[in-house]
Design brief:
- The structure is a single chain.
- The chain is globular.
- Helix 2 runs parallel beside helix 4.
- By secondary structure, it is mainly α.
- Strands 1-2 form a two-stranded antiparallel sheet.
Length: about 180
């Protein structure tokens, strides 16, 4: 049951962030993200390793999204005042945290298929941002931005899949 919660739950969190922010319901993504992350952490046998793993992807996501914003390739629906409107919004931080939490359940089948993981990242990464743009949480994403997102997400998936074989020693789920 936990396996499916992690896969489906991430999609629910993503949708809650996109829909909730675009419709002025900021508590929806906050609450669902916290429930999702709490469930993830409650199943971790090594909480320190889990927090470190989540932290790596939180920082990576902050760098990628804020860099895209700083370069003017992506404009967020942001509550930050100028000149900080290019900084990754808080709700995107939750998406990155929940994405990392879902990694073992969602992507373990790709452990020995790194090329497929990279291709999926190149394609699905920009599509996720395009979907966010359709919801209105990204005001604008330039064509070069989509190209860079594809490159970033291909690299992110390669890094993620590279780390998956070591995760069972650090992120073993309890009662599974």
């Amino acid at each position: 049951m936990y396996f499916w919660w992690m896969i489906i739950g991430f999609q629910v969190v993503w949708f809650a962030c996109a829909w909730g922010i675009s419709h002025q319901y900021p508590l929806l993504p906050l609450l669902l993200s916290l429930v999702y992350l709490n469930t993830f952490m409650s199943k971790q046998s090594d909480k320190k390793a889990a927090y470190l793993f989540l932290g790596k992807f939180l920082i990576l996501g902050f760098i990628v999204d804020s860099l895209m914003g700083a370069l003017g390739l992506m404009t967020f629906m942001s509550s930050y005042p100028q000149p900080l409107e290019w900084v990754q919004p808080w709700w995107l931080s939750f998406i990155w945290l929940c994405f990392a939490a879902s990694a073992k359940s969602s992507f373990s089948w790709l452990e020995k298929r790194r090329l497929i993981a990279v291709i999926l990242g190149v394609i699905a990464g920009p599509i996720a941002y395009l979907s966010g743009q359709k919801f209105g949480v990204f005001m604008d994403i330039k064509p070069l931005g989509f190209i860079l997102l594809g490159i970033f997400w291909g690299a992110i998936m390669w890094l993620l899949i590279k780390q998956l074989p070591s995760l069972p020693n650090h992120l073993q789920y309890k009662n599974e």
